[in-house]
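Example for tutorial group B:
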């Protein structure tokens, strides 16, 4: 009986050019991060579930891939890198002076709904700026996010900025309890306009109500900030976004920036500026991040923080296809001539020359012909020579 073995749902094999394109994106991102002073850290692929449950992780429980542990404790495949790195910063790096600039290049794992085509294993490159607060820290992270997409050679892209404080300000004016605030957040994030209007109907006399009704539509250029001020009056959050934009524009980054005040995902996790990056050709955000000032303190060290992660595969798919190197020569060598054969292979551009495992020259020529090579390089007692295929 013929055995058919498939990969688990949400996973797949990646071959040749896909691997090359992924490495290209990773290498460009890592080069940028190192240039900006970030140091690499790596965390385990499996962590205790309690680590994410207690930290208020931005990843909901149902999207975590759970695995067993010999001790009987519940573990999960790493669903995000920020929480484990916050743990590292508060423990193993406790004696290291702040701010700490850390970067990572590792996979995260998500249990996506069945048959939706999403990947369960997502290679990410990202940075965390630990122990820095204020405008300059947020500017550093945002421009690094923009430069990340620029360095990868992404086609037309932009980064959308929001602020967790704007939603909190509006919700506080309605005197909502935590459950009601979470329900509104979910409706805004899901752009469920009908349900949102019904929920807010008892609050029609409150000026904040109109702003909340419009919140999921408040996206675009700087006109969005003007509309937010018209609806909600002066707020610290919108003033802060104005200040960010002024600095970004002065530095030449204004062309990449837009705003989305309806970006209220995981509002209990993020504490300030939040942002997402979008590239033409990708169906969803390829980059996301924001400020999370309360996370590191959960692990015993007070340190404000901000950061972002890039979805490497999604960015790679938006780039022009990378051509694989064309094999031009096969090296046939007789016993005792391995060093000369290796020298020939290593002296050619990568992927254009390879050793032949064949015993006879004729077999090497046949192999070269099948693989589309132009010639066989021969090393034997007569020296080195070329034999055309």
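The residue assignment follows.
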């Amino acid at each position: 009986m013929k055995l058919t073995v498939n990969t688990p749902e949400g996973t797949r094999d990646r071959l040749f050019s896909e691997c090359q394109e992924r490495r290209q994106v990773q290498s460009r991102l890592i080069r940028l991060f190192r240039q900006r002073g970030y140091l690499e850290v790596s965390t385990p692929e499996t962590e205790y579930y309690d680590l994410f449950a207690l930290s208020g992780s931005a990843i909901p429980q149902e999207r975590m891939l759970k695995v067993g542990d010999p001790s009987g404790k519940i573990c999960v495949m790493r669903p995000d890198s920020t929480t484990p790195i916050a743990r590292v910063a508060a423990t193993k790096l406790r004696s290291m002076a702040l701010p700490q600039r850390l970067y990572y290049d590792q996979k995260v794992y998500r249990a996506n709904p069945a048959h939706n085509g999403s990947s369960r294993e997502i290679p990410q490159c990202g940075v965390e700026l630990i122990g820095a607060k204020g405008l300059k820290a947020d500017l550093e992270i945002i421009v690094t996010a923009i430069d990340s997409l620029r360095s990868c050679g992404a086609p037309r892209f932009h980064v959308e900025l929001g602020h967790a404080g704007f939603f909190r300000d509006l919700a506080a004016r309605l005197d909502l309890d935590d459950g009601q605030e979470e329900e509104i957040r979910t409706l805004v994030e899901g752009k469920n306009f009908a349900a949102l209007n019904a929920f807010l109907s008892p609050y029609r006399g409150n000026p904040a109500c109109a702003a909340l009704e419009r919140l999921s539509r408040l996206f675009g250029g700087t006109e969005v900030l003007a509309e937010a001020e018209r609806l909600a009056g002066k707020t610290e959050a919108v003033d802060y976004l104005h200040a960010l934009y002024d600095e970004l524009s002065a530095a030449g980054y204004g062309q990449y920036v837009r705003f989305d005040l309806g970006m209220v995902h995981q509002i209990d996790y993020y504490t300030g500026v939040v942002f997402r990056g979008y590239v033409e050709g990708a169906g969803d955000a390829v980059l996301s991040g924001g400020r999370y000032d309360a996370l590191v303190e959960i692990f015993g060290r007070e340190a404000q923080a901000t950061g972002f992660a890039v979805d490497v595969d999604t960015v790679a798919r938006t780039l022009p296809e990378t051509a694989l190197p064309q094999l031009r020569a096969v090296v046939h060598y007789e016993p005792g001539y391995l060093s000369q054969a290796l020298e020939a292979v290593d002296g050619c551009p990568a992927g254009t020359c390879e050793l032949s495992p064949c015993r006879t020259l004729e077999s090497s020529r046949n192999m070269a012909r099948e693989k589309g090579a132009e010639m066989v390089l021969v090393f034997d007692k007569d020296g080195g020579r070329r034999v055309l295929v």
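The longest helix spans residues 17-35. Compare this with the pattern of hydrophobic and polar residues in the output above.
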